[in-house]
Amino acid sequence: MGSFEQRVLTLASAAGLKVAEVTPSMAKLRFSLENDSQTVLVAPYSDGVWEFSCISFVAADRIAKFPQPLLAMALEDNSTNKRGFWCIEELGDSYVLEYMHNMSEVLLTPNEFQRICYSLARAVSNFEASVKARAKSLL
User: Fold this and answer.
1) Long-range Cβ contact pairs of 29-36 (< 8 A, separation 24 or more)
2) Average of per-residue pLDDT across 25-43
3) Which CATH number goes with the domain that contains 114?
């Protein structure tokens, strides 16, 4: 088991979190929230930064097909969140709206690891609930 895998398992265990899957290039944690569940992915980069991400259900086959009101909601959310951010990520042959947070691995404590994971899961859950509640007026 590599250092990334061992570090994720150690942080998660100390934070009371369970890792659903871990490989040398990615870890997956699942969270059950009030009305849904979310998956948080953690990936290491060679410069010592870890990328935390949580994919929303908002997807399109081309960036131009994203509903502009949804992108405006995400950008408005970005303006008030100083630690996490919404972005568009290419996954396979589609694009998804996801919430991300980057953090230097050396700064991660179990509490910070837990806080980041839960904040991403809650941000996506809240965004998706807002999209569902406003679906008819947004699309």
Assistant:
1) 29/117, 31/117, 31/118, 31/121, 33/121, 33/122, 33/125, 34/125, 35/125, 35/129, 36/125, 36/128, 36/129
2) 92
3) 3.30.1460.10
